[in-house]
Amino acid sequence: MPADNYARRVEAVLFAAAEPLTPADIRTYAGEGDLGAALESLTADYAPRGVNLVQRGGRWLFQTAPDCATVLERAREVPRKLGRAAQEALAIIAYHEPVTRAEIEEIRGVQTARGTLDTLMEAGFIRPAGRRETPGRPMQYATTPAFLAHFGLETRRDLPGLAELKAAGLLEPLPDPAEDEDEAAALASDASSD
């Protein structure tokens, strides 16, 4: 079978797919062939177009080219915005997965409402990831391929690091413990002199 015919079949499978597909899923429908070459060829063919073939979390899908996204803003269904608690929980899960509710609460420093995790599961961003082998066997949570696709990440390794977050102004610098001790000593001396 000619290589271009196989690439056409791969293209048809990906175009008709309702969800991103793994290479094994693609082979199930398109049959055997040089899948790597077909995907590489299709990625190059679609690079200058309004839709691009991309890989997210080991799965392949067509998505709107970034420079054309604004064209579809009015036509796109706008998902409900996540509240601050949900954003914080999602970030913790993404950086620490698999993670339990208790671990999320420990990192956040406050209780996490049950609805917060339910909202993230309904949005398709997180999924149950089994139970921890500890007393009480708490449920663990992990991100999904939909999370990667929504945020334009190929893998979780593409999440910004600490230095990138600080450079973007998204993290406040931690207070210097020496300054806290000096301030506490100054307050104590002021209080004793009164």
Secondary structure layout plus pairing:
Blueprint: H1 3-16, H2 23-30, H3 35-46, E1 51-56, E2 59-64, H4 84-96, E3 99-100, H5 101-108, H6 114-122, E4 126-131, E5 139-143, H7 145-150, H8 162-167, H9 177-193
Antiparallel strand pairs: 1-2, 3-5, 4-5
Helix pairs in contact: 1-2, 1-3, 4-5, 4-6
Region (Disordered): 173-194
Keywords: Cell cycle, Cell division, Chromosome partition, Cytoplasm
InterPro entries: ScpB_csome_segregation, WH-like_DNA-bd_sf, WH_DNA-bd_sf
Model description:
The structure is a single chain. Helix 1 (3-16) packs across helix 3 and helix 4 (84-96) packs across helix 6. Strand 4 (126-131) and strand 5 (139-143) form a beta hairpin. The model has no long low-confidence stretch (mean pLDDT 83). The chain folds into two domains: 3-72, Arc Repressor Mutant, subunit A; 84-167, Orthogonal Bundle (Arc Repressor Mutant, subunit A). The chain contains nine helices and five strands; from the N terminus they run αααββαβααββααα. It has helices at residues 3-16, 23-30, 35-46, 84-96, 101-108, 114-122, 145-150, 162-167, 177-193, and strands spanning 51-56, 59-64, 99-100, 126-131, 139-143. With 194 residues, it is α+β, with helices and mostly antiparallel strands. The chain is 48% helix and 13% strand.
